[in-house]
Amino acid sequence: MFPRPIDQTSPLTQRLYTIALPIALILWLLPLLGVAVTSVRPASDLAQGNYFGMPSYIAFENYISVFRDSDLGRYMVNSLKVTIPTVIGAVVLSCMTGFALGIYKFRSNLLVFFLFVAGNFVPFQILMVPVRDLTLDLGMYNSWTGLAMFHIAFQTGFCTLFMRNFIKALPFELIEAARVEGVSEIRIFWYIVLPLMKPAIAALSVLIFTFIWNDFFWATVLTTTKETQPITAGLSSLNGQWVAAWHLVSAGSILAALPPVLMFFLMQKHFIAGLTLGAVK
Amino acid sequence: MSSYWKRNQLRIAPWLFLAPGAAMFLVYVIIPIFQSLSISFYDWDGLGEAVYIGTENYVELIDDDAFYTSLKNNVIWLLLYLLAVPLGLFLAIFLNQTVRGIRIYKSLFFFPFVVSQVVVGLMFSWFYAPNFGLLYKLIELVTGNGIAILAEEDYVTYGIIVAGLWPQIAYVMILYITGLNNIAPDQVEAARLDGAKGLKMLWYVILPQLRPATFIAVVVTVIGALRSFDLVSIMTDGGPYGSSRVLSFYMYEQALSEYGFRMGYGAAIAVVLFAIMMVFISGFIWKMWRDETER
């Protein structure tokens, strides 16, 4: 194990380590802690210049007023409307593309695979104008469908990379045995490979949920009104309205961050497995 | 029909499974790249008739100061963003222990990556805010004069990059923690018996084994640096006086904001950014291709 386990070192080092750990964490999360405290600070404290002291009381009313007086709740619903279909769409499509590229040997296999991988890395701006036009032509501009359609298509690139590598690592003998038995390719996919892909599906679902929930660029390009804007774009425009109302900005930020954070803590194992795919040989 | 399928299914099946995903990807990603290339030779406001103007957009770029500012900032982003790799490694080594509660520490350190860049941007705006921001106060305490980082042309880009590094370091850290967990313990022990320790051990024994993690860390960091848009948009909107623009933001500003709808000019900026990224993408793909065909 590297570095040397701390319990094999001198008592002094062990002592220092246990002290350093929480201090490092607090420093690391300082911006987050500051915003969290500000989100429950009453407006009167800010007016009196009490930015860093203890809040004079815990003002949960900031959260209530964010929900009551702004469209934040609606923005969050809009985000769900984009995020959930995207997760389903991208996972379904990439189960199939990953299967095709992971199981079959055909001549253009690697070429198709690397097209997916490369497309996944391109800058969004090179797609912006044509995708916006396409969405307008399809009559899906400024709607959750237009945004979700693009996200499904784009995320299929990353998901295909993921699924293909996952399927490639499965024992191929299973499939060969089934073929010898005369099982059709479609049944092999459905009854043999798909059940084995559950961990990959779980990992991708939480990752894509987080990516799409946090997307800001496409939200600003493809949606324009509060009826359709996701939370990221919504928070940005609320930030413009709440000039210097930092207690509201903070409460809104915390709320916007909450769903992916919950997702992460509930599905931590899958999340990290998904993110670190390929980091070990 | 059914006998045809039976005989040829091994050949047809992959294309059947590929079709829906590949069609979507083609329509929304691959084809738009070429459309953008073509649009960059037109003068177009997005609504009216597009007028072919040859390379005029590119000629205009050569004399555009804002373009050079953006390009320069992209280079700064790229160089400083790569600090996330050693810093993430440092954090991973710091946290790769087995003391009580370490799992919770690891998840909390990873936290910034889960949060949207919009929220990260707002958090750091507050951190930097003039007169009451935490950093402003600290600088005031030390030097007597506070500095409003985001309002100073000389500091603004660095201020935004620090905000971007925060989640990026967390990402790299988690890659390296996974890598460190999979290091062959016998090699480490053998090296230890030979008297290797500290930096020497890290350089000669650990880092070579972490190579796959390092590769991914560099890929995601380079791509992340060149994609930076959210933080610039949220924290400064390109300002003050356009000094914190990057190419991705400048393209958006030209093509789709209150400053105008110059789709052709925007597309030309996007093509330049694309060309820069293609250098890196080709490198990554080349390495992955080699790994694949070696096996």
What layout of secondary structure does this protein have?
The complex is a heterodimer of chains A (281) and B (295).
Chain A lengths: L10 H18 L1 H10 L3 H5 L13 H9 L2 H32 L5 H11 L5 H13 L6 H25 L4 H8 L4 H12 L1 H16 L3 H6 L8 H11 L4 H21 L1 H8 L6
Helix pairs in contact in A: 2-14, 4-14, 5-8, 5-11, 5-13, 6-8, 8-11, 9-10, 11-14, 11-15, 13-14
Chain B lengths: L1 H38 L2 E2 L7 E2 L3 H7 L2 H17 L2 H12 L6 H13 L2 H12 L5 H10 L12 H26 L3 H9 L4 H12 L1 H17 L2 H6 L11 H9 L7 H32 L1
Helix pairs in contact in B: 3-8, 3-11, 3-13, 4-8, 5-8, 6-8, 8-11, 11-14, 13-14
Name its key features:
heterodimer, A: 281 residues, flat, B: mainly alpha, two-stranded antiparallel sheet, 14 helices, 2 strands, 1% strand
Can you put this structure into words, describing what you see?
The complex is a heterodimer of chains A (281) and B (295). Chain A is mainly α. Chain A has two domains: 19-59, no CATH class; 71-275, MetI-like fold (Orthogonal Bundle). In chain A, 73% of the residues lie in helices and 0% in strands. The mean pLDDT of chain A is 91. With 295 residues, chain B is mostly helical. Chain B is built from 14 helices and two strands. Chain B has helices at residues 2-39, 56-62, 65-81, 84-95, 102-114, 117-128, 134-143, 156-181, 185-193, 198-209, 211-227, 230-235, 247-255, 263-294, and strands spanning 42-43, 51-52. Chain B has a domain at 64-116 and 156-294: MetI-like fold, CATH 1.10.3720.10. A two-stranded antiparallel sheet of chain B has the order 1-2. The mean pLDDT of chain B is 91. The interface between A and B is large, with 99 and 106 residues.
